[in-house]
Amino acid sequence: MDPVDVENMTEMTEFIILGLSDNPRLQFPLFLVFLFIYFIILLGNVLMITLICVDPSLHTPMYFFLGNLSLTDICCSSTIIPKLLAIFLSGEKTISFAECIVQLYFFMGSTCVEIFLLTAMAYDRYAAVCHPLHYSLIMRHRVCGLLAAASWTIGFVPSGTITASVTHLSFCASKVIDHFFCELMPLLKISCTDTSGPEITLFFEAALISLPAFLVTLISYIFIISAILRIRSAEGKLKAFSTCSSHLTVVSVYYLSLFSMYLRPTSTFSLDQGKILSVLYTTITPMLNPLIYSLRNKEVKNALRKVLGR
């Protein structure tokens, strides 16, 4: 590092988040759009959790994991959207260093938890389709509890490692984050010190944690599709596929956006593309998840009718 960089290096106490648009005319319309999205996220996911808790017919492994998934979606969106709404409404774009780090930690943690919950749900669907006679034995309450606990633990503990490595970075005169929240890639972009530490940590955690989770999900669906193809009747195939179609839809959207975001070198990282992809998996996906499961599952529809009937 040359002397100029050393002189410009500061103890960063706050950042400036540029947000989604600099156009003053768009701030209030964007505020209304994201306020509506956040309302739908909270309404849909809280309603899903409530239905799963109060209706005995939904006390199954799949809906147990779905309840955890809804809780994760609330955590992820609540980490990001309220601050974004405040930026739209007030125009105040500063965020303290501590608030930024907390936002980064809970965003990364909830993202990792969601990956593992989707993996547990894929295994659950594999057991239901490929081993229906032994399903209740394979997916016992104890097994489901351990899988959920492991998802939350493995999600948030390693995320702390990456977040801690970011706190040791130095930031020079530029403190502008060209994003709408404190995301890892934009933070690495404005660091004036070597960022290989967080990048290596992220790579190894992706290789040792996220990649195996994806492979388990992929292999589960290979076995599921193979089992469905062996069913002779068209009605049987449709019934078997309907049990996992909602999960497959959510997994496809989630992994597509994450892979597009992270599985490429930082030198080719486009901040504008990153914003669009981030909106997809931080706001749109949490909003769509309860809608996808409620619209495609008769059990959820029946539970909703019972609750509304009361």
UniProtKB/TrEMBL annotation:
The keyword Cell inner membrane does not apply. Keywords: Cell membrane, G-protein coupled receptor, Membrane, Olfaction, Receptor, Sensory transduction, Transducer, Transmembrane, Transmembrane helix. It comes from the Eukaryota. Pfam families: 7tm_4. It is found in: Cell membrane. SUPFAM superfamilies: Family A G protein-coupled receptor-like. It is a multi-pass membrane protein. GO terms for molecular function: G protein-coupled receptor activity; olfactory receptor activity. The chain crosses the membrane at residues 28-54, 66-89, 101-123, 143-166, 206-229, 241-263, 275-295. One of its GO terms (cellular component) is plasma membrane. CDD domains: 7tmA_OR. It comes from Microcaecilia unicolor. PANTHER family: OLFACTORY RECEPTOR. Its main location: membrane. Residues 44-293 form the G-protein coupled receptors family 1 profile domain. Belongs to the G-protein coupled receptor 1 family. This is Olfactory receptor. InterPro entries: GPCR_Rhodpsn (IPR000276), GPCR_Rhodpsn_7TM (IPR017452), Olfact_rcpt (IPR000725), Olfactory_GPCR (IPR050516).
